[in-house]
Each structure stands twice: as structure tokens, then as C-alpha cells.
Amino acid sequence: MDRPPHSPGGQAIVEPVASSHPAIPEEAEERISVATQWQLMWWRFRRHKLAMVGSVVVLLFYGVVLFADFFAYAAPTASEAQRSLLPPQPLHWLDGGFRPHVYGFSGRRDPVTLKRVYTPDPAKKIPVRFFARGFEYRLLGLIPADRHLVGVEGAAAEETLFLLGTDEQGRDLWSRLMYGTRTSLTIGLLGVTISLVLGVLLGGVSGFCGGGFDTVIQRVIEILRSIPTIPLWLGLAAALPSSWTVGQVYFAITLIISLIGWTELARVVRGRFLSLREEEFVMAAELAGSSQARIILTHLVPSFSSHIIAATTLALPAMIISETSLSFLGLGLRPPAVSWGVLLQQAQNVQALAISPWLLTPAIPVIVVILAFNFMGDGLRDAADPYGH
Amino acid sequence: MLAYLARRLALAVLTIWAITVLSFVIIKLPPGDYITSYIAQMSASGGFVSEAEVQALRREYGLDQPGYVQYLRWMTMVLHGRFGVALEWKRPVSEVIGDRLWLTMVVSVAAIVVTWALAMPIGIYSAVRQYSTGDYVATFVGFIGLAVPSFMLALILLYLGFKYFNASIGGLFSDRYAEAPWTLAKVWDLARHLPLPTLILGFAGTAQLVRIMRANLLDELGKPYVVTARARGLSEWRVILKYPVRVALNPFASTIGYLLPYIVSGSIIVSLVLGLPTVGPLLLRALIAQDMFLAGTIVLLLGVLTVVGTFLSDLLLLWIDPRIRLEGKQ
């Protein structure tokens, strides 16, 4: 049962909440009856444990987005042929006390397969320092800095750190993963924003005006949803001129993936509009002489903004998967851009996987962040309507 | 019922028209036109195209005409079953696509059958035994299914198959049958290779449908008519399967309309990872080589077949749900 937040008679709203918890003391009941809509939502959201865990994970990931340079310890393009396809160096914590280190290694070329073979050398311990100095960067794009979460400060040139191993060009996978996180998650956020604008605009028009507009927009949505999206995206993405810069391609890809994503959001917005249009408080506002704009902006939008936030959160994973899929196929972002999909491209065939399975590690953050967004979105959806059950 | 059918049919026709326009846009998008690519292709392979030939080609494809005329010409060609020439192969597009289109549809439809066959019993079990261990396992696996994109699942299984069984799990045919003409033995070989790709493709959809089925059935199970049926002494399985499951099945059937485009989409990218001889790898190659007639035709045919499939699922819905059949009769 949907109840508008501005409905007169607050007592009636509170009742179902209070009666479902007969043991609530009077003081708490008092607190609930004066709580704002957003407070009630927060209380309900907090009860959803998985959603809380999901939110924390999402926050951590966006922390990486902001401070990718700090979490990385090598420039994403720094490559070295001598270190090609090096397996991960596991971190050892203890060495007669707390002294984190990794083992050094010696590499040579196998005379038969011509592949580089590396053997770890436990005698050669490379100390790993926290907050070590490394390559220079600008924190948040502003403050010059050279500190990194971990590093091998001051060590000899050949003593380097590759926590997740290296790729074919000898680039550090961990550092590239940090930068890839930045690209993939911002593209998802940007794409969902464009989808949101389109969805709210078209869904709102559709739901509020009804009639011919509604029919046309609904048919367009149905048509878009019955076309297989990946072939379509591929076709559009392949047409991007190869002379475009990394930035131009980035925006074009964002636009392409958001062209499809808006349909679901438009559906949610339209549904809300349709159900709210019939509510008594809208009629009351109309009778009191409010303008259409005022009804939409001060009465309708606040009462469904929570639903939109939930739907947006649930739309984000699809955006991230789309970008990853396109880049994985080589038609999305192009090197030197780094994204999860670009990183996974190296793991495209079974030969590469068999020789260097660590190239598959970028799959882990993709799965984790999608799960986290799904849990968070589920919690938000339940909390979006704090007056219902 | 007729009104419903007419509406769905009209929408299907409209969608097919939208797909033809989009495919045409894809063909037209890259700089240059078919002839410039053709000349480039010919001179790259040491061939020569005479000026007269160029003029003739331009006239045939109507490249000197405005956009809408070109579109109409292209549509006329397509309706006559002529899709142009695939540059890279120098063979008609329809010949290059060949069996691949049907194999794509076989894989996709099989994936939907698998999705249904798995989601229905698991969903019923999860609802009837709510909060049991099995329910929790199903929920957990379901979340994984939602979170792992199908191509990633294919990659992971490919790696595991290689590592633990030292076998390549990709492909749709054994080497022996790959180029062989269609025989019963080849069909059997195909059937033996189908389970893995269909499971990978159907996984996410299954996860979604299990959740829908579970929620719908839970809603129904508490209703008075279920209590009545039980009080009348019907056996538990009969109570559940005969009444609430039938009601819960309806939204289940209507999701197939969105499931088919989703699975066809997924099959493109999964085929690439698993090396399936569907249109997926062909489409990708055509796009990278800017062989736009081939790419546009594949997008067009995939879209049209998907719409036809969706329309068939609407007919199925009509058969399952009497409420739609009786619509407008009151």
C-alpha cells in the first residue's frame, strides 16, 4: 500500500508501523510519529543487513575511484618486457616480527617453448612498505603527491612488486585494476545519470500527460526492449571513428549504453506518476489552486524520489556489465584506456588462461560490485516505501 | 482475444520496421560507403575495379540517391532475399551466414527451455519449503547468477575445464562433424554439445525466474482457496500443482518476451568465448572489418527472429492464461 508523505492525518500513517511492533515503548512510538520520511527510510534500510554490507562495499569501491593513484603503486602504462606474464607475488607478513615482504624471483627464457619462466627465490626478500613513495600524481586531480598505499621504496631497480602479477606487456595488474575500477565505475555512474534524465523526462511525460504521448512512449519502450541489445550496441560502437581520442570514445560508449538503460527507469517513473495522480493530496493541491508545475515539483517528485534512487541503483550493474562486455569484445573502450573489460580482454582465450590464470582476477571486482549494488538496491527498494510493509 | 492478437501483431510489425531502420543506420554509419570499401578491398588483394564497374555498382545500390531511397532499395533487395556481398569472403552474405543463424536460434531456444525447466521446479520448491536449506542454497546461487555476466561464467568454466579435466569444453560439434553435411549423427553430436552453452546462457535468466516464481507462489499459497483445497483433503502436491502454481505461472510466461532478446544478446558474446559456430563471432569480425552489409544483415535477421520468437511466446501466453483469451468478452 503506497501512502504519500504529505497525506494529512499523520496518525493514520504511523499506525501500521506501531501496530506491527506491539512491544515498541511509547517513547519510540513518539519518535516514529515525528520522524521525516527520509528518517523512516533510513531506519528501515538499516534493518536490511545485506543491504548495509552492500553499501559499505560500494563505498569502498568508490573510495578506490577517488584515490586510484594512491592505491596503485605503478603507473598504469609502465611496462617492461623483462617482466612479461609474471605470476602474482604473494605477500608474506612475518619475518621475525611484523615485516611484510615478497620474494624476489629470477626469470629466464625456456629454450623449448620460448616462454619466460619465473622462479621465486625465498632467500631474496623484498621489503614492502606502507605509505611508500612512488610515482608522482595529483590527489583528486589537485594536490601533488607521491605517497602510495604500498611500495618498495628505495629498493634496487630490479626489486619490484607485482601483487597480482603482470600482463603480456609486463604491466602491473594490481595498479591497472585500480585505474580500471575508476573508469568502469565512473562510466556506470555517468551512463545511469543520462538514463535517469531520459527516463524521468519521458516516463514523467508519459505518466502525467497520458493520452497520445503515453501510447507512443510506451510502444517505443516495448520496441526497444524486444530488440537484442548487444548486436545493436556492437554495431553502433563499431561505427565510432578510430581517430577519436580516448575521451571521445569514453563519452560515446557511455551514451550508447545509456540509450537502452532508460526504459526500465521510465517504466518505474510512469508507474509512480499513474498511481500518485489519483491520490487525495494531489486532488487537494489542485483544489487549492496549485499550478501543474508546483504539484509535480513539490508534491509528486518528493514522494517518488526514493523509488527512483532504488531503481537507479538496480540499473547500475547493467551499465557496468554493458561496458565490460563491449570493451571485452574490443569494441568498447580502447587501450590506452584501462577498464575492467579492457583488462579482461587479455583473458579471452583458453590458451592465455591456461598459461596465466591470474589475468582473470579483474572478474572478481566485477562480480563483487554487481552483487553489492544488487543488495543495496534491494534494501533501498524495500526502504523506499517506509509506510508500507 | 482477436483484439489482443491484432495488437501484438501490430507491435511485432512495428518492431520489425524499427529493426530494419536501425540495421540500415548501422550499415550507413561508418565513413565511406559500400563501394569505397569494395574498391579498397579489391585493390588490397591486387584486383582492379574499372570506372564503369564502379558506376554500375553505385547505380545498383542507389548510392547516388538520397537516404530514404537507398533505404527503400535496400529493403526491396532484402525482401527478395538478396543481402549484398560480404567483402571479406567475396560471397553473398546469405551464403556466409548459412547455418550459423539457425544454430544461434537453436542455442537460444534451448537456453530458454533449460531456463524454464530449471526455474519452475526450483521456484516451486523454494516457495513451498521457504527458509529451508534448499531455499537458501537456491537464493544464494540465484544471486550469483544475477551477478556473474554470462561471458564471465563461460570464461571461468573454460578455465576450470582446462585445469581439472584438461579438456576444451567449447564448440558445438566434434571436429569430425564440424564441416560434415547434416545427418542424424551430426544432430546427435550437436545435442551432446548443447548442455553447457545453454546452461551458461540460461543461468542468469533462471536466477531471475526462480525469484519471480518464488515470490508469486508465496503470495498465492496464503490465499483462502489453498486452505479450502487442503481442508477438502486433496493431497499436498495436488493442492499446490493444480491451483496456486497455475496462477503463479502467468507472470512467468509473460517474461519470456524479455528473456529471448536477452538470451540472444548473451549468445553473441558467449559464442565468442566458447567458440560456438553461431553468428556471434561472424558479427564481431564483420564489424571490425567494417563489412557493413554482413553486419547489418546479421543485426536485422537476429532482431526479426527474436521478434517472431516473442510473438510465438505471446501465443503461448494466450493458451496458458484464459484471462487474456476472454479479454473484451464481458
What would your notes on this structure say?
The complex is a heterodimer of chains A (389) and B (330). By secondary structure, chain A is of the alpha+beta class. Chain A is built from 14 helices and five strands. In chain A, β4 (129-139) and β5 (143-151) form a beta hairpin. In chain A, α4 (49-66) crosses α14, α6 packs parallel to α9 (246-277) and α10 (280-287) crosses α11 (292-328). The model of chain A is unreliable at 1-20 (pLDDT under 50). Chain B is an all-alpha fold and 330 residues long. Chain B has a domain at 100-320: Orthogonal Bundle (MetI-like fold), CATH 1.10.3720.10. Chain B has 18 helices and two strands. Chain B has helices at residues 2-28, 34-44, 51-61, 67-79, 93-97, 100-128, 133-147, 150-165, 175-178, 184-193, 195-221, 224-231, 236-242, 244-254, 256-274, 279-288, 292-320, 322-325; strands spanning 85-86, 91-92. In chain B, β1 (85-86) and β2 form a beta hairpin. The longest helix of chain B is centred in the middle third of the chain and has 29 residues, at 100-128. Chains A and B meet through α7, α8, α11, α13 and α14 of A and α1, α7, α8, α15 and α16 of B. Chain B: Keywords: Cell membrane, Membrane, Transmembrane, Transmembrane helix, Transport. Chain B: It comes from Candidatus Segetimicrobium genomatis. Chain B: Residues 101-313 form the ABC transmembrane type-1 domain. Chain B: It is a multi-pass membrane protein. Chain B: Its main location: membrane.
